[in-house]
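Q: What structure does this chain adopt?
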Amino acid sequence: MDRVNLDGKPIQAISICMIGGGGFIGSHLCEKLMSETSHKAIVVDVSSDKIKNLLDKSLPWANRIEFHQMNIKNDSRLETLVKAADLTINLAAICTPADYNTRPLDTIFSNFVDAIPVIKFCTENKKRLIHFSTCEVFGKTIGSFLPEEYRKDPKYYMLTEDVTPCIFGPVEKQRWSYACAKQMTDRLIYAEYAENGLKFTIVRPYNWIGPRMDFIPGVDGPSDGVPRVLACFSNNLLRGEPLKLVDGGQSKRTVLYIKDAIEAVLLMIDNPDRANGHIFNVGNPDNEVSVKELAELMIKVYAKVADIPASTLSTLNVRSEDFYGKGYDDSDRRIPDMTIITRQLGWKPKTSLDDLLDSTLRYQHQTYSHAIKKELSKAST
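A:
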């Protein structure tokens, strides 16, 4: 049966150039596109490890997915691929907080400078662009500057795409290099739309979580690397180490299951008339949790998954300066306003925090526990 969009019109198969499509989000999006649509994916990335299961030539969609191993910096092939596609999705980014302080130049180049040619190629060739931004562009919330008695009111932490101001720490707080670079890219895209008619959609993810997120240090990533919080905590759980709570884990975040998030992205792909010209928060305000509460929940869920006593797992408070280095700063709370995406695309998240943690930690345990045990036994001999 033919698929139809939200307005009841048949959805035509298109070709999609997916830059950075071999990563966490791209791998889930490729799975969705291959299994549920007729769209073609032209995947551009430095590695195909997370999508190699989709590239087998015997699979029914083999003629609808192709992989180009490429670093998009100064690669002349990129424009040809953008030209060949109907839609470009830009997922390429350095988006790990541990890098913002230690690699600020790489962070700024990856998230702003390297995005400029992609935007230019889409504008000049009249191609539609879906660009992945971040909820970090909002920086600190208004609530974090208010007297204590106002700080419990969620309205001061609600982030709205077209209203909320962007507030950052001073320049020496290099943690904001990522947020500022992403914000400049958003502004460049909007300027191209305003002056040159670029058809765009900007996606602002709020802590998307699920299988294949980031890496486990020393197993499928650098041994001295520091991934984002879920993979950090997963690594600690797998090794039986205390989960490190930066500044006590008081910051709050809302988390969204990757499968729910990909449903939202597919709606953007299939409904250009409703999605073009919009910036969409994509998160789950009902799944708000402090980092400390997240650690405690993960301990409880992992103990059940791994069939070990929860009492063998613990947390440890560390200072942000010791964990991330000098120049680290953070926002204490971020809640996405879902008005625009609900109005335009009728999308709402479905998966509870307990369910998404259960699914993700089962994957982490099944995928990594044997390799970690092997590594730990080597170290002890």
